[in-house]
Amino acid sequence: MNELELVERAKTGDTKAFEELVKLTQEKIYNLGLKILGNRDDAADILQETYIKAYENLPKFEGKSSFSTWLYRIATNFALMKLRKEKYKKISIDEIKKSSDENYKLEISDWSNSPYFQYRNEELKEILNNAINSLPPKYKTIFILHDIEGLSIGEISEILSLSIPTVKTRIHRSRLFLREKLSEYFKKKGNSNEM
Q1: What is the pLDDT of residues 139-158, one digit of tens each?
Q2: For the packed helices 15-37 and 40-57, what is the interaxial angle rounded to 10 degrees?
Q3: What pLDDT score was predicted for residue 55?
Q4: Contact present, 6 and 54 (Cβ < 8 Å)
Q5: Global pTM?
């Protein structure tokens, strides 16, 4: 049974169909919450809140977007509300990796087994993590949805209720910000290698 059929059955009160929808989408929703909030417990809360809200509002789901996109929107809204309520501490990518499911993979490739290159790789991961975490929430969320989760600009537009030009602008600005942060790092490294 495909997603659309499951949604239609769930709308008629078929709880088994809704359970199947949860099974199909829960990993994505959990990982989204984890990436935005950086905390396993908060990601689990977002997961639970998302499915409660989805179940309560299922009769209102019109199918203008996919069920998964609708869930992303609900989860993202809950995560952003949580971020607004609590100013989250910045955490490292390594902490997110440790606290996530084994299916969550975010890695920067290991360029060499050399201790020097391994040190540089760890240093670069930390710089990248700090740069991503220093993005304002409106840019960080869009960066995560687009560049990490791989959602299209149209899907992000639907999820965040933003116009497509606004989404494109925010993606562009987040990348410029990250490029600037990373270029500072590489300039410093280039200058230190010349000495």
Answers
A1: 989 998 998 888 899 989 98
A2: 140
A3: 92
A4: no
A5: 0.64
